[in-house]
């Protein structure tokens, strides 16, 4: 049951499905991802995600899916999350949903904005730091630290996403949009920075190495989890996670104990200083750490690890054997060979 006022921004869409199907879907999601689940007298069910919630309620023999958020951009993200889950069920395609809501047909989706490359500079041996300037970056300056870098077409004829009259985002072109971490942001001054690990064959890497000031890029988000804060943390990752690890270290209380494992080939990244930080360098050492944790146990209050998908597996298995999901964020940041 709800004990607080609902978030200000709301949208809903009727679906031709029994409420029970959606209720089951939401309960499964809450269980799988450790989300808070709410139920309104058996007539509605919703999960909480970031600064909002999405769910379903009975409507005659069918149901209505809804999303509610504290801001229009997060509302949009929740609508997309709900649509994705319904599509995964195999029952409804995202395009078939007709949302009510505040968006305007033809406008860019609220969780998308354009920016321009200000500069790209080498950061140590392995990274390029890119500053992007743009308007409307406030949505990316909250506690979530990731965005999707939308790569423009090489010929300059990029068609960016637009909203339909039903409030759905359409992408006229298939644009490459991998997730990145915001390493620094000043929304009032209109810029953010992201640190790009340079690896063979990377399309964003190639773009960053060859781009010029003033080139237009797209930014969607925010997305992903926030930054855990605790008295003791076990954190780790390969180079793709170094920017996120740096941000997590930077927000910890000076009294916190941070056991940080770096799985990249090098440690050449500017991690912030912290009195409780203990860095261990284990190149590709995810399985070694899993074996160590199997012997010594997970001692930290919170765990945050992100690395290549296959290498994450032994750690994921061991950590979730020992502690509940809601104390651990274990993410695959890239997939080898894909
Ligand atoms: C939430 C989140 C945040 C992330 N933050 C960052 C960040 O701040 N900085 C960052 O550099 N990356 C980050 N990543 C990882 C990044 O999204 C991927 O590495 C992505 O594939 C990079 O896109 P690309 O265009 O460079 O490579 P693509 O063109 O997509 O991939 C080309 C090839 O490179 C391979 N590849 C991808 N990553 C690596 C790697 N690390 N080492 C070796 N081969 C690789 C792929 O398997 C593929 O075969 C993040 C990922 C997630 C999910």
Give the percentage of residues in beta strands.
25-35%
Shape annotation: globular
User: Which ligands are bound?
Assistant: flavin-adenine dinucleotide
| Annotated CATH homologous superfamily of the largest domain | Translation factors
Overview of the molecule:
It is a single chain. With 338 residues, the protein is α+β, with helices and mostly antiparallel strands. It folds into 3 domains: 9-96, 2-Layer Sandwich (TATA-Binding Protein), CATH 3.30.310; 112-223, Translation factors (Elongation Factor Tu (Ef-tu), domain 3), CATH 2.40.30.10; 232-334, 3-Layer(aba) Sandwich (Rossmann fold), CATH 3.40.50.80. The chain has helices spanning 19-33, 72-89, 203-210, 242-250, 286-296, 309-322, and strands at 9-15, 37-40, 44-48, 52-59, 62-69, 112-123, 127-134, 146-150, 162-163, 169-170, 179-186, 191-197, 216-223, 232-237, 257-262, 277-281, 302-308, 328-334. The strands form 4 sheets. A 6-stranded antiparallel barrel has the order 6-7-12-11-8-13. Helix 5 packs parallel to helix 6 (309-322). The chain is globular. The mean pLDDT is 91. It binds flavin-adenine dinucleotide.
């Amino acid at each position: 049951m709800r004990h607080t006022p609902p978030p200000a921004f709301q949208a809903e869409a009727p679906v031709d499905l029994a409420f029970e199907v959606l209720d089951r879907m939401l309960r499964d999601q809450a269980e799988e991802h450790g989300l808070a689940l709410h139920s309104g007298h058996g007539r509605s069910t919703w999960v909480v995600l970031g600064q909002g919630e999405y769910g379903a309620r009975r409507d005659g023999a069918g149901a209505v899916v809804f999303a509610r958020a504290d801001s229009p951009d997060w509302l949009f993200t929740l609508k997309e999350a709900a649509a994705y889950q319904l599509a995964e069920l195999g029952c409804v395609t995202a395009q078939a949903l007709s949302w009510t809501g505040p968006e305007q047909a033809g406008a860019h989706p609220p969780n998308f904005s354009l920016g321009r490359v200000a500069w790209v500079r080498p950061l140590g041996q392995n990274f390029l730091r890119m500053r992007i300037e743009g308007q409307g970056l406030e949505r990316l300056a909250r506690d979530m630290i990731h965005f999707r870098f939308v790569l423009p077409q090489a010929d300059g004829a990029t068609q960016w996403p637009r909203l339909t009259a039903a409030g759905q985002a359409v992408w006229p072109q298939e644009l490459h949009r991998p997730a990145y971490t915001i390493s620094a942001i000043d929304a009032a001054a209109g810029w953010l920075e992201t640190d790009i690990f340079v690896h063979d064959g990377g399309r964003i890497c190639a773009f960053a190495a060859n781009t010029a000031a003033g080139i237009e890029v797209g930014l969607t988000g925010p997305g992903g989890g926030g930054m855990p804060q605790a008295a003791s943390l076990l954190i780790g990752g390969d180079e793709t996670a170094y920017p996120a690890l740096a941000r997590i270290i930077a927000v910890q209380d000076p009294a916190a104990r941070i056991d940080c494992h770096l799985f990249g080939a090098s440690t050449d990244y500017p991690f912030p200083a912290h009195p409780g930080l203990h860095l261990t360098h284990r190149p590709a050492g995810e399985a070694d750490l899993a074996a160590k944790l199997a012997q010594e146990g997970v001692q930290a209050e919170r765990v945050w690890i992100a690395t290549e998908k296959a290498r994450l597996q032994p750690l994921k298995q061991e950590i979730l054997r020992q502690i509940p999901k809601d104390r651990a964020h274990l993410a695959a940041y890239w997939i080898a060979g894909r």
